[in-house]
Write a structure and sequence with these properties.
It contains 14 helices and eight strands. The chain is of the alpha/beta class. The protein has three domains: 174 residues, Helix Hairpins, CATH 1.10.287; 122 residues, no CATH class; 222 residues, Rossmann fold, CATH 3.40.50.
């Protein structure tokens, strides 16, 4: 029962700034609309100003609802968070007081029972004292029951405060998501397509303009020359120069004129041929591309339908059958995708750049629930710009040390998930790592290299015991490392915990326990490489696949997976979850899964306890 994190003051100030920005936008729109209204002044320039003002007012107005709704959502959440924090603090205080009262009542009850036993051994003497002791025992038992009920009530109030805080957070997130996704500021698909064609038309217009300017310059030169020749001829006639000289000059001028006209005609013909060639080449290229796409679509649809039917007949669930049919059908219909995979693999050959390390204080208790809190936290930590969620700047790996059964230090390693769906970013957990991690497992991704470097910086030595954990790409990366002979021969990988990840195509040693959690509507866990063997039935696999409400990202959501882990594993709702947590007498070194939870134990140079260390990286060459 820890105090709830968060700063309502910062949330309120941020929400107020967003609301003030929305107010300023409304004022600006009103001013622009005043400018756009018809007035006494009439001119082409004034009309243009009014038109531009009206257009700008429409564009600026589209941003007002985004800022206003975001501000209101943050202010509402700040109020709910402050209330939940205050209730949680009161509940914790009441729980601690009730726990202390319970301990005192239990100690008093034990003392009275000992006195009663002594009195009974005195051969029946002191019957009145025995009656008094029984009355005191009943009173002490009642006090203990009351204290236990008070502690339970405080716990329920704390849980209610946490639930209210989470509901308010989800509501604020939903409001902000809806206003951002529904904003008129977002470009549509046709806007993007129109922009491409607009740029192409601009390029052709610029090229034609340059050609026309050159032709006009040549024609001007010809006209100037013709005028000069006529002036010379007229001057010669007027001055009475010799007919022979006039004829010679006339012939020379005519020859030059013929050459210039011929040159102009050649230039015009070349220009026309170049323009015609560009148009023809563009049309031919367009026809080739369209034909290639149509053929590819035909092959894809045919192959996909056949493979989907075969997968269903083989007993796959519909989502798995769909995904496992789509991957080979796409690669068969469009073999150019192998070049994309090769380019992505080339980008993963670099060495990551270490940025910094940050230590955190020790938590009182570690669990599967706090493990998912860590995974969500390191995903968020990579986004350095709070106003740009689409860009992930760094990859953060978190390592937590624990004390093993023989006093040795063992380590739990947390790996981030995909945070950027465009290539060419600065972080290692982007779409490039996704492609290479599944379709070219022989190539070590930069994210995998970041994990190995973080483990070395944390002082993890060859032969040390580790558990790897991650969801989505983090889980795929954990599986790839556990299946890597070089990695699993260097470290003793006791277990991996993955959620929403495809790891059935990985040959992970049987000495490593694999907790594999998936949702039936989530396609990501079904993206195994179709060209590799299936290891889903290996004895070291503990698979949990449960249905969830697919309304949020088809179930591919860290919070939903956290809820599934809590119900299926922590609360014992699944036999596979219970088996995964059960002690194994034959575990290497005697290290059990439960040893990776509890209370972390490591200290800094000043002797202060450390709970975890975050290692931040960017992509390197």
């Amino acid at each position: 029962m820890d105090p709830l994190d968060g700063d309502p003051v910062v949330l309120r100030s941020t929400g107020q700034r967003y609301r003030e920005t929305a107010t300023a936008i409304r004022a600006a729109v009103a001013t622009l609309q005043d400018i756009a209204r018809p007035g006494a002044m009439v001119s082409v320039a004034i009309d243009r100003v009014r038109t531009d003002a009206a257009h700008l007012a429409d564009e600026v107005h589209a941003a007002e609802s985004r800022y206003g709704e975001t501000g209101e959502a943050l202010l509402d959440y700040a109020t709910a968070l402050a209330d939940a924090q205050e209730r949680a603090v009161r509940a914790i205080a009441d729980h601690d007081a009730a726990t202390a009262d319970l301990g005192a009542a239990q100690r008093r009850e034990r003392t009275l029972r000992a006195e009663r036993t002594t009195l009974l051994a005195s051969d029946g003497e002191g019957a009145g004292d025995l009656t008094s002791l029984d009355r005191l025992l009943r009173s002490a038992g009642g006090d203990a029951a009351d204290a236990d009920a008070a502690a339970a009530a405080a716990r329920r109030r704390y849980d209610d405060a946490v639930a209210d805080r989470d509901r308010a957070a989800r509501a604020a997130i939903g409001r902000i998501h809806d206003v951002v996704e529904g904003s008129d500021l977002n470009d549509s698909f046709w806007d993007d397509v129109g922009g491409v064609f607009h740029d192409l038309v601009d390029f052709l217009a610029d090229a034609l303009e340059a050609i026309v300017d050159a032709i006009v310059a040549v024609l001007n030169a010809i006209a100037t020359l013709i005028v000069a020749v006529l002036a010379v001829i007229a001057a010669i006639v007027l001055l009475g120069l010799a007919i022979l000289a006039v004829l010679v000059l006339a012939l020379v001028a005519f020859a030059v004129l013929v050459l210039l006209v011929a040159a102009v005609l050649v230039v015009l013909m070349v220009a026309a041929l170049v323009v015609l060639g560009l148009v023809v080449a563009a049309l031919v290229l367009l026809a080739i591309v369209v034909a290639r796409v149509l053929i590819g679509l035909f092959v894809f649809v045919t192959g996909f339908a056949w493979l989907f039917a075969v997968n269903l007949l083989r007993g796959m669930d519909p989502v798995q059958a769909l995904v496992q049919a789509a991957i080979p059908a796409l690669l068969t219909a469009f073999p150019e995708l192998w070049a994309v995979i090769a380019l992505a693999s080339l980008q993963e050959t670099g060495t990551p750049d270490f940025v910094d390390a940050e230590s955190h204080r020790r938590r009182r208790h570690e669990s599967l629930d706090t493990l998912f809190n860590d995974l969500i936290a390191i995903d968020d930590a990579g986004h350095l710009d709070p106003d740009d969620d689409a860009t992930n700047h760094e990859s953060v790996v978190r390592i937590i040390p624990f004390v093993g059964p023989d006093g040795e230090i063992i380590y739990r390693v947390h790996i981030p998930s995909t945070q950027q769906w465009t290539p060419g970013g600065t972080s290692g957990n982007d779409v490039t790592s996704d492609v290479v991690a599944k379709m070219n497992q022989a190539q070590q991704t930069q994210l995998e290299k970041m994990v190995i470097d973080a483990m070395q910086r944390a002082g993890i030595q060859p032969g040390d015991h580790v558990m790897l954990a991650g969801w989505s790409l983090g889980g795929i990366t954990a599986g790839n490392l556990a299946a890597d002979p070089a990695f699993n021969s260097t470290y003793q990988v006791d277990a991996i915990v993955v959620a929403g990840s495809s790891v059935d195509d990985l040959d992970i040693p049987h000495t490593t326990r694999v907790l594999d959690i998936s949702h039936t509507t989530d396609p990501v866990p079904r993206t195994e490489n179709p060209y590799l063997p299936d290891h889903s039935d290996d004895p070291n696999r503990y698979k949990i696949d449960v249905p969830v409400d697919p309304s949020d990202d088809l179930g591919h959501n860290a919070k939903k997976y956290q809820e599934t882990v809590n119900s299926q594993v922590t609360a014992g709702g699944s036999q596979a979850g219970r088996d995964f947590l059960a002690d194994d007498p034959g575990a290497p070194g005697g290290v059990q899964v439960s040893d990776y939870f509890g209370t972390p134990a490591k200290h800094d140079e000043d002797g202060n306890p450390i709970g975890s260390t975050d290692y931040a990286y960017t992509r390197g060459d």
